[in-house]
Specification:
The complex is a heterodimer of chains A (326) and B (346).
Chain A lengths: L1 H7 L7 H20 L6 H10 L1 H15 L7 H18 L4 H25 L4 H19 L4 E2 L3 H7 L2 E3 L5 E3 H19 L1 H11 L1 H6 L4 H27 L1 E2 L7 H11 L11 H20 L6 H21 L5
Antiparallel strand pairs in A: 1-4, 2-3
Helix pairs in contact in A: 2-14, 2-15, 4-9, 4-10, 4-12, 4-13, 4-14, 5-6, 5-7, 5-12, 6-7, 6-12, 9-10, 10-12, 13-14, 14-15
Chain B lengths: L1 H4 L10 H17 L6 E4 L2 E4 H24 L7 H17 L4 H25 L4 H20 L4 E2 L6 H5 L1 E2 L2 E2 H19 L2 H10 L1 H6 L4 H27 L1 E2 L8 H11 L11 H20 L5 H18 L1 H8 L5 H11 L3
Antiparallel strand pairs in B: 1-2, 3-6, 4-5
Classes of the chains: A mainly alpha (326), B mainly alpha (346).
Chain lengths: 326, 346
């Protein structure tokens, strides 16, 4: 019935989950703005981008993985490893950040590549390979340093005070700009590059993609390299955000990232969804967090409960608003 | 050996690798850890490192039993850790409010079964993918448990309830006897009744199972309920062991350990076949490795790395692709596509 209605207004049902996400975001924003004075301000909205930059970047990498029908459980650990490795390189080994940052990004890509290669060459389940990766990477991070390392390099204090003015007194931070740049690049890649099209094709049906002659193996490995790179970038952002490196950073973040992707309207079976949806999903998670802080009487666990409830609603929307594939 | 009876090759016996790995760790301890095999008889009870391994492994072993069934139907349950927190919180609150031990345990098991039923409902009848369906409770469940306890660690008043975590039955710690009993019942249900067959057939082909007159939905629903129940039992043991309901830490990452145990034991994530004994061996292997690392005084972070290597090793050993690759066929892209088609989970 829902499909019939959709045809009347000429909106393809594939956009339903994305539209539901956008609608939820606007609804939350309006309700929160009416309820809390001072909520709808440039400051709060920019903080939303700022506070969720590392989650958002990790979730963007996760979107590609999930679009291809896989899953990556290692993103949280990767944030811990890159932040602690970066802090050790800069503070203990006195490597210049301009060299250290590309180094840890390459490490993230390489670790992702190893997981992708295991998935591609040995046909192992992504769930298990990245679960092993999660343990391995967290172990490596703890091996580097058990305690948190403060980052005191001048570039950190410079970057964290950096604001690009938007006029009217509000300024957007460097971290938020990197987040938005990653979002723009990922959106372009997912829609216009052949890699992006291949990701959708593999998620739609891997055997068909193979029989079409698409480079399935290469694309799969590249997806996990991209996800490793994104979570490493998220780790770098995290180290700027907190001015420290911590091996236990990002614990459980993979679940928030997956939740953001699902709330953003991407199907976990793969093949359908948008990077922009994930962006909105991340903002929705951020809005809930902010609203719970604004509502003084609510305790922190309401965040988890409401994220769970929201996940449930979106799962139902996905289940009933999109055509079933047999 | 069992493998000879079935006239199969020994290398095809699914329990071979996990048992070999467990044997290797035990042999290592025999050679290098003095006192690891020392078992003491004191006041009619058994004490020692081996007993300790069994006792510490008991929550994971219990959950691994339920997880094995869930995975055999082609599903997965990420929410078991949150369920242990829920049942721990429920029992602590009930005992705090002066309930009897029996009714407190009953009520917290009901909470756990309800959590399992919620998962089952989503997977079986709303047909949500198991990872997402159970992710909901994994995220929200711990929040609900925090809501119940007000975010506090609730101490459990001393009483009969302590028996679960630190009591003894038949000279063994109570939790070991409990695992043995529950495993025996689960093994009986799985192998001597039609239930095991139903579970495997749902995992192999739910549509064909439905045409054969078995309700796939009910089978799926019930395995999630059972998994919730096992997780609840594990939560009770944990709560009794530490005499408190610590909702933030109780059962954290337990779901991952349980899934690891099941996979190490030779149950494929695609579903369709299962081995309860394998899962128990897997859980024991994980705990033996952890205990070995602790008793050797090695860094704790090594546990994570070794766990990761064990998972990867076991996955590679079970990987058909690796075997075929080693046998030298598996060259054409078409062959790979046909292979992917044949193993694509429904």
């Amino acid at each position: 019935m829902k499909l019939l209605d959709a045809e009347k207004v000429r909106i393809s049902p594939q956009y339903f989950p994305f539209m539901a996400t956008a609608f939820t975001f606007l609804l939350l924003l309006v309700v929160a703005s009416l309820r809390y004075t001072g909520f709808f301000s440039a400051g709060v909205l920019i903080n939303l981008l700022d506070d969720n930059a590392f989650l958002g970047i990790a979730a963007i990498g996760m979107t590609f993985v999930i679009l291809s029908g896989g899953i990556d459980l290692s993103v949280g650990s990767m944030i811990g490893l890159t932040s602690v490795a970066l802090a050790t390189l800069i503070e203990r080994q006195h490597v210049h950040p301009a060299l250290a940052i590309p180094l840890v990004l390459a490490m993230g890509g390489a670790l992702g590549g190893v997981m992708g290669a295991l998935i591609r060459f040995f046909a192992l389940a992504p769930f298990l390979v990245t679960l092993a990766g999660m343990f391995l990477i967290r172990g490596l991070a703890l091996l580097i340093s058990m305690e948190s390392i403060q980052l005191t390099h001048p570039i950190y204090s410079y970057f964290s005070s950096l604001r690009v003015s938007l006029g009217s007194g509000a300024g957007i931070s460097g971290l938020a700009l990197i987040f938005l740049a990653t979002l723009a690049a990922a959106t372009w890649i997912s829609i216009y590059s052949s890699f992006g099209r291949n990701v959708y094709a593999i998620g739609g049906s891997e055997p068909s993609a193979t029989l079409m002659g698409l480079p399935v193996g290469r694309t799969k490995v590249t997806i996990y390299i991209a996800s490793g790179f994104c979570s490493a970038l998220a780790g770098v952002i995290y180290s700027f955000y907190t001015s420290s490196g911590n091996a236990t950073a990002g614990g459980g973040l993979e679940l928030d990232a997956i939740a953001a992707v699902v709330i953003g309207g991407t199907l976990l079976t793969g093949g359908s969804g948008y990077v922009l949806g994930t962006f909105l999903g991340v903002l929705i998670l951020g809005l809930i967090q902010t609203a719970v802080t604004f509502e003084n009487t609510l305790s922190s666990w309401w965040t988890r409960i409401s994220i769970g409830a929201l996940l449930f609603c979106f799962v139902l929307i996905q289940r009933f608003a999109t055509p079933r594939r047999e | 050996m069992k493998a000879n009876k079935k006239r199969g090759r020994l290398s095809d016996w699914p329990l071979l690798w996990p048992l070999l790995a467990l044997g290797a760790v035990l042999a290592f301890n025999f050679l290098f850890s003095s006192g690891f095999y020392h078992i003491e008889w004191k006041d009619g009870h058994l004490y020692g490192s081996l007993i300790d391994v069994l006792k510490r492994a008991s929550p994971v072993m219990l959950i691994a039993l339920g997880m094995t069934w869930v995975i055999a139907t082609g599903g997965i349950d990420l929410s078991v850790g949150a369920t242990t927190a829920l049942s721990g919180a429920a029992v602590a609150l009930a005992l705090r409010n002066g309930w009897g031990t029996g009714s407190a345990i009953g009520v917290s098991l009901l909470v756990a079964l309800a959590a399992g039923a919620w998962n089952g409902l989503l997977v079986a009848w709303i047909e949500v993918q198991p990872i997402v369906a159970t992710l909901i409770l994994m995220v929200a469940g711990r929040g609900l448990a925090q809501l119940m306890t007000g975010g506090q660690i609730i101490a459990i008043p001393l009483g009969d309830f302590k028996v679960l975590g630190s009591g003894f039955l038949f000279a063994l710690p109570f939790s070991i006897s409990l695992v043995a009993g529950v495993s025996a019942v689960a093994g009986f249900l799985g192998r001597k009744t039609a239930m095991g067959l139903y579970i495997e057939s749902v995992g192999n082909n739910p549509v064909a199972t439905r045409y054969a007159g078995v309700s796939s939905g009910w089978v799926k629903f019930l395995v999630y309920v059972a998994c919730g129940g096992f997780a609840g039992l594990a939560g009770l043991i944990i709560a009794s062991d530490v005499s408190a309901a610590d909702v933030n830490n109780s059962g954290l990452y337990l779901e991952l350990d349980a899934i690891l145990a099941v996979v190490i034991g030779g149950t494929a994530l695609q579903g369709g076949r299962f081995s309860l004994v394998g899962s128990l061996v897997g859980a024991l292997l994980i705990q033996t490795v952890t205990t070995t690392i602790h008793t050797r005084g090695l860094a704790v972070e090594l546990t994570l790395i070794i766990k990761a290597l064990v998972v990867l090793g076991v996955c590679l050993l079970h990987s058909d692709a690796l075997r075929t690759f080693l046998r030298g066929s598996f060259k054409s892209q078409i062959g790979r596509a046909r292979y992917a088609l044949s193993r694509k989970p429904t």
